[in-house]
């Protein structure tokens, strides 16, 4: 492969033409300016449900940087964690709930949004209870482990007249927004093929991620979903068919309940095709698109960053941001402004992905091409 000559930011933008100019992170995912006008002083109160690794290491620190929301409450089954978080983040006891007492959150005016950060199989129950408590909801990916659960979650939020966002942090991330634009606006011509893969070597084999009943599957549910998203947001299309293959298990004792490695291929209406890998046995994190007149890629493409990108014309230069802070601020700004959330971060989008994940499993299990 020919290595591109690195270009300066100015040369790169000039080369791509005026339409390529992307200003640093001051627009939201729909290209609307992010301003604090109107609701300058108001921050929505978020309660995190489940204080595991993602809440502790990513969301709580990000909530110290957000402009439109703040960490107002917690829901946990572990009293020691409650004490630790109350002290560390100055959370009043009145805003601390156990899973059993969670529904009382309905009476708490400090909490506007409930963020469900539990194992995948628990998302549905807690999103539905959050909606019934009259709160807006953010739910981590994958939205649920069945399409039916996704629909029940959407219905519950609709019935309560509350909005449901999925934890699609990359939709607010500047490098990702740039490859969405490069692909969807055909800056390098029609996208022809895509390689979109996300995998890592998993540690503790006893964790819930290794139990199908809790995770819904293996690496596909956990990180393969990013590869599915990547192919979809680069083309801006929905796949029309899928084929898939499980790799033979190299560590069968470890992978008794879930797949170890899985490959799949989507075909899109434009004729574009994508090829993806996900695995819990070794790592890859890359989104590459080959087009009629060039190519572009992100590598790394899906982690917490900094993401890195280049094209056949030179490096992609974008500001490095905190993904979780951008995501929560983006969602909460829209909620504060009384706007309907953009469709591509809502429950409908979450359900589309879960449907595709299930189709990938079906294709791998049957060896057949599944029409979508
Ligand atoms: P984790 O195992 O670190 O935390 C899970 C939390 O759920 C723990 O606090 C645990 O005590 C609690 N819990 C309650 N009931 C449980 C039960 N029956 N079994 C196991 N745990 C139980 O997991 P995590 O990495 O924080 O992931 C939580 C969710 O966040 C998952 O849906 C995951 O896919 C998602 N996630 C998203 C991102 C992202 O980048 N968007 C990153 C990591 C995790």
Automatic annotation (TrEMBL):
<feature type="domain" description="Gfo/Idh/MocA-like oxidoreductase N-terminal">
    <location>
        <begin position="45"/>
        <end position="168"/>
    </location>
</feature>
<dbReference type="Pfam" id="PF22725">
    <property type="entry name" value="GFO_IDH_MocA_C3"/>
</dbReference>
<dbReference type="InterPro" id="IPR050463">
    <property type="entry name" value="Gfo/Idh/MocA_oxidrdct_glycsds"/>
</dbReference>
<protein>
    <submittedName>
        <fullName>Gfo/Idh/MocA family oxidoreductase</fullName>
    </submittedName>
</protein>
<dbReference type="GO" id="GO:0016491">
    <property type="term" value="F:oxidoreductase activity"/>
</dbReference>
<dbReference type="GO" id="GO:0000166">
    <property type="term" value="F:nucleotide binding"/>
</dbReference>
<dbReference type="InterPro" id="IPR036291">
    <property type="entry name" value="NAD(P)-bd_dom_sf"/>
</dbReference>
<keyword id="KW-0560">Oxidoreductase</keyword>
<dbReference type="InterPro" id="IPR006311">
    <property type="entry name" value="TAT_signal"/>
</dbReference>
<dbReference type="InterPro" id="IPR000683">
    <property type="entry name" value="Gfo/Idh/MocA-like_OxRdtase_N"/>
</dbReference>
<dbReference type="InterPro" id="IPR055170">
    <property type="entry name" value="GFO_IDH_MocA-like_dom"/>
</dbReference>
<dbReference type="Pfam" id="PF01408">
    <property type="entry name" value="GFO_IDH_MocA"/>
</dbReference>
<dbReference type="InterPro" id="IPR008354">
    <property type="entry name" value="Glc-Fru_OxRdtase_bac"/>
</dbReference>
<feature type="domain" description="GFO/IDH/MocA-like oxidoreductase">
    <location>
        <begin position="178"/>
        <end position="296"/>
    </location>
</feature>
């Amino acid at each position: 492969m020919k290595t591109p000559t690195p270009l300066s930011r100015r040369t790169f933008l000039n080369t791509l033409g005026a339409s390529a100019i992307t200003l640093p992170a001051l627009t939201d995912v729909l290209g609307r300016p992010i301003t604090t006008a109107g609701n300058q002083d108001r921050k929505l109160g978020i309660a995190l449900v489940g204080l595991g690794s993602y809440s502790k290491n990513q969301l709580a620190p990000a909530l110290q940087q957000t402009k439109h929301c703040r960490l107002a409450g917690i829901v946990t089954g572990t009293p020691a964690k409650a004490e630790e978080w109350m002290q560390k983040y100055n959370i009043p006891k009145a805003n601390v709930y156990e899973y059993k007492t969670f529904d009382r959150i309905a009476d708490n005016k400090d909490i506007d949004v409930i963020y469900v950060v539990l194992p995948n199989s628990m998302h549905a129950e807690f999103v539905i209870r959050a909606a019934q408590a009259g709160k807006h909801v953010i739910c981590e990916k994958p939205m649920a482990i069945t399409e039916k659960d996704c629909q029940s979650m959407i219905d519950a939020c609709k019935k309560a007249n509350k909005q449901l966002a999925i934890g699609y942090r990359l939709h607010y991330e500047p490098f990702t927004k740039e490859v969405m634009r490069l692909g969807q606006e055909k800056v390098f011509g029609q996208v022809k093929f895509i390689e979109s893969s996300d995998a890592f070597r998993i540690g503790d084999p006893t964790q819930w991620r290794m139990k199908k009943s809790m995770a819904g599957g293996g690496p596909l549910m956990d990180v393969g979903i990013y590869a599915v998203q990547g192919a979809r947001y680069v083309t801006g299309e929905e796949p029309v068919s899928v084929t898939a293959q499980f790799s033979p298990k190299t560590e069968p004792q470890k992978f008794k309940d879930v797949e170890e490695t899985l490959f799949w291929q989507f075909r899109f209406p434009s004729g574009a095709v994508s090829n993806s890998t996900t695995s819990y046995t070794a790592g890859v994190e890359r989104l590459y698109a080959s087009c009629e007149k060039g190519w572009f890629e992100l590598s790394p493409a899906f982690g917490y960053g900094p993401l890195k990108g280049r094209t056949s014309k030179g490096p992609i230069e974008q500001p490095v941001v905190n993904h979780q802070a951008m995501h929560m601020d983006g969602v909460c700004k829209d909620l504060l402004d009384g706007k309907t959330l953009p469709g591509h971060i809502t429950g409908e989008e979450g359900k589309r992905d879960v449907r595709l994940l299930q189709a990938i499993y079906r294709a791998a299990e049957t060896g057949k091409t599944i029409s979508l």
